Amino acid sequence: MTKSLHYRACHLCEAICGLAIETETLADGETQIRSIKGDPQDSFSRGHICPKAVALQDIQNDPDRIRQPLRRIGQQWQAIAWDEAFELVAERLSAIQAEHGQNAVAVYQGNPSVHNYGLMTHSNYFLGQLKTRNRYSATSVDQLPHHLTSHLMYGHGLLIPIPDIDHTDFMLILGGNPLASNGSIMTVPDVEKRLKAIQARGGKLVVVDPRRSETAAIADQHLFVRPGSDAALLLALLNTLFEEGLTRASHLPVEGLEQVRAAIAEFTAEAMSARCGVPAASIRQLARDFAAADKAVCYGRMGVSTQAFGTLCQWLVQLINLVTGNLDRAGGALCTTPAVDLVASTSGGHFNRWQSRVSGLPEYGGELPVSALAEEMLTPGEGQIRALVTVAGNPVLSTPNGRQLERALDGLDFMLSVDFYINETTRYADLILPPTAPLEHDHYDTTFNVFAVRNVTRFNEAILAKPEGALHDWEIFVGLAKAFAARNGLELKPTVAPEQMIDMGLRFGPYGDRSEHKLSLAALRDHPHGLDLGPLQPNLAARLKTPSKTVQAAPEQLLADLARFAGQEQPAAHELLLIGRRHVRSNNSWMHNYHRLVKGKPRHQLLMNPADLASRGLVDGQRVQVRSRVGSIEVEVAASDEVMAGVVSLPHGWGHARPGVQLDIARAQPGASANDLTDERRLDALSGNAVLNGVPVEVVAA
Fold first, then answer.
1. C-alpha 161, offset from chain centre
2. Fewer CB under 10 Å: which end of the chain, C or N?
3. Is 164 a member of any domain?
């Protein structure tokens, strides 16, 4: 028996914590994982890990994980050879497009795609050949407002300023819970220590959330805000900054600030207070405190993106940082200088060049809002979706009105899933192609280094050998591309392995051949604990991608959306509003099949304020029915003063006990899917992003 110690980053969430993994090779040649611990030599994560990282061995050993291609025959699954599977896909998709047009095939890419560089580098090698406008992804579930705002203001959807958390004196968080998420569009391992360090150096942490979240519990101040009304609070804050002369000049070239000031003049703290549920005096004091801090940063995450005015919220977050002089400033909000620079090497994107067939929703970066996916399948006529390719996604549990999507999937002519589970979505597939498990392939974080709170880089070697007969995800897409091209007489451009692409990206990047660092793949292999390339630095002026090379403070689309905001009908006083919540042991819908992550106190319940329980004649622990326009669920209710009155909270991603799901541990867990209640008709009308927070519901005894 031989023991070995390996180092790599965990890529299950955005924090990319460094790991020390001990393996043991047995006499028969089999290699097993003996332990997974935090790597104290990783300067970014500093030895910190969360429970998800330890569960990497559970993913590796999960008996429910698919290890060979499967074809569905009736309700049974049968093994199929790789080449035969590739030919089947090429045959079926080609036939459907030939009969019904290119847009009759749709694509949905799930959140894990961005955590796996083989999918990032090679999925379009095949998917691009489909030439369909029906492209969808998890982006329009939880983060599209971020990208659209940066596209409109800075000229590129990935040019997103990140909180300089290690140097700020005042951090204002709206709709984010980094103690549970480990950061989100803010790659920040060891976040609790970093937040407490702000306080230790005399700074202040303020959290705005309808729930007293784990992050709010350690904050200096927590303000309850009515779900879906953060835009009102942010407008009031920005208005106060202008009105009370609390602004500071910026070194950045900016156009449109006077237009902004005039456009928001009516949205005073007093006018917005009733709408957001925060006293006007508290709003004004928060604006004064933020402006008085030497270095401050405003950060809004999922809770403010997944509401009817999510794009307005993200625009206002950027403006608050800008007008207080904290945009592109140390201790404020800064853009990274990543070793593989996706901003420099990709176009700035496009918006609303075409719209969805049924509801006319706008595309962004070639993708349509996923809330339109089901209706595009269910609505007859030219352009109706008749086939679907899903990649590392489970939209039945992850997108609005999951029950409607189930009906749509059941009526497809053909469905392919690249996934290693038979889950709530892939059970409808005709063919499932499983890639290797996380520890069986190498990895480079192309995306999360772009959002990191320090400039960092590392290459992660595979820990375990690729099993005989298995394929990496990028190899699956190469196989699909070759089969589809051959059937349709297309000429494929040559491709190389993902690691070679990363090597080129490193060499041509800001720390590559023309710099003192001379970064390359070989150089990173010499640094198994990763490389710290220094703190974030002001760089936005030089990186702006707008045609004028200026910050566009007043994009016409956002100014126009203020009229929609002003005219929005307000919720009825008695109405309950549904919000989600995160947990550090969970990651969307796919990490509930591992015992070490689902053990402990139950966390599937609907949280409800005791006053709301009493007024409805309900009691703690009771089974209740929760109803919305689109459907109803049954779940246990838990009394909690964590949520403000008028708000109920249900975690996302549960509800696995559906026919055909082959996830034994997950199926045994209680709980229901929050997306059986969310409404595909409730959208941020500007971006098309789904509304998952502030959904009106009724709660009655079951």
1. 16
2. N
3. yes
